[in-house]
Write a structure and sequence with these properties.
phospholipid biosynthesis, lipid biosynthesis, about 35% strand, 2 domains, Glucose Permease (Domain IIA), eight-stranded antiparallel beta sheet, about 20% helix, PS_Dcarbxylase, three-stranded antiparallel beta sheet, zymogen, 13 strands
Length: about 190
Amino acid sequence: MRLASGARRYAVPPLALAVPLLFVFAPAGLACAAVGFFTLWFHRDPEREIADSGVVAPADGRVSVCRTESGRVRVGVFMNVSDVHVNRAPLGGVVASVDHRLGAHRPAFSKDSEKNERVRITTDSYELDLIAGAFARRIHPSVEPGDTVARGERVGHISFGSRVDVLLPPEYGREDVDVAVGEQVTAGETVIAR
């Protein structure tokens, strides 16, 4: 199974601690092993069949935001703990900037999440916000300014709960959006706008 970068950083300490604890206090050793294996599972990075056209979902999860702001459409996907947390480019493009903004760690599905820590990936046609949630403490972008990304290409991941928003290119209106709030989507495969 492919793992997102950084998975070992979070999984190795509890797994390493589990070995000696199994001999000293078995329940604690089993708990550490469970945490380590859960962490590996959480950071899974499965292959996807990327849609041939349209704007694809940037994350696995439920659509939590679909609104128009300043004449452009924003679609947000909330990732539950059981969702894959690897994020993908909704469209091809050239990365103009990758900006990290410190902030709060409120639940990513709430309105207060506008103040949360985030990484904004701006391309020549759209913006992608990787937003930390209540338990997320690390956003790991995997692109840099000047990189060219293809539709569905991996652009980063967020460790332990979050949301990803895409601000669609200006030519897309609400009538072009193919998903509704509450709908389950799959990164790279579900077309969110045509």
